[in-house]
Design a protein that fits this description.
The protein has about 325 residues and is mostly helical. The protein has 16 helices and two strands.
Length: about 325
Amino acid sequence: MKNIKQRKLAAAYVAPRVTWKKDFKKNGVLYLLFLPILIWAILFQYLPMPGILMAFQDFKVGKGLFHSDWVGLKNFIDLFTGDAFPLAFRNTVAMAVLSLTIGFVAPILFALVVTSNPHKKFRRFSQTASYMPNFVSAVVMCSLAVQFLSSDGAITMFLSWLGLDRQNWLANANIPVFWLIYTFIGIWQGMGWGSIIYVAAISGINGELHEAAAIDGASRFRRIVSITLPGILPLIVMMWTMNIGLVFKLVGNNILLLYMPTTYDVADCLSTYTYRMAFGSTVNYGLSTASGLFQSVLGTILLVVSNRLGKKATSYSLF
């Protein structure tokens, strides 16, 4: 009888209606913090969206967006039938796969190593030091990579000491040398910054679970596998899904600063291929927009598919 009464009371309870004014008064500071992000998204994400029309036009600056000649799918045909497109697409997929495997796992492993270390000073120092490469410009980062991987570079000398040939590694056109170099440069620059969210999530796990497991004799590795990783699994699935949707856009950020004619066949990606075709001897804004639209549509499809697969495999999803 008591349970029945409680159910009736719960069913009869109506949550008080929260108006927008009350919510703004209560969380006004949060709205103000969100305001710059909202303005940035409107200015740089939503207002430029009519520019997608350029993908179907022979766009001329003098004629403008609504008076340029329509060419239908010609820009897409030119994009897909280019001689270098198959290699550019292959290289993009290869570097995207490496970024979604090695590059994605690196911040998680770093966060686990940092949070499992008992020395606070070491944790603070390692975290602070790992954040620094993220604030170094891409030009400086790539210049350092060129110096380290040159014939007389520090990394080249170390590899030759291990028995590998002494060479300029960035000029090596063998698969997958350039792909791995590009992936590890990305890890070097973004591992520490990418680990912040995982460190925060691990810190939020109840410490009593680790204490109870330690009393029962569980090793540190066993506690990581049985407590830490399941605790941050929803975050891992969410971040992995988001990365899949953005990976084709992100591949190519530093390649213009790293590749050279000898490595075009293994380093050319969709971004650099589009750059050469759209801004070469003649400027073709329509072709550039078509390439960006193609990558966006492909990223959206991968995002939806990966979200469904992640939901089936782990019961967690981004949406």
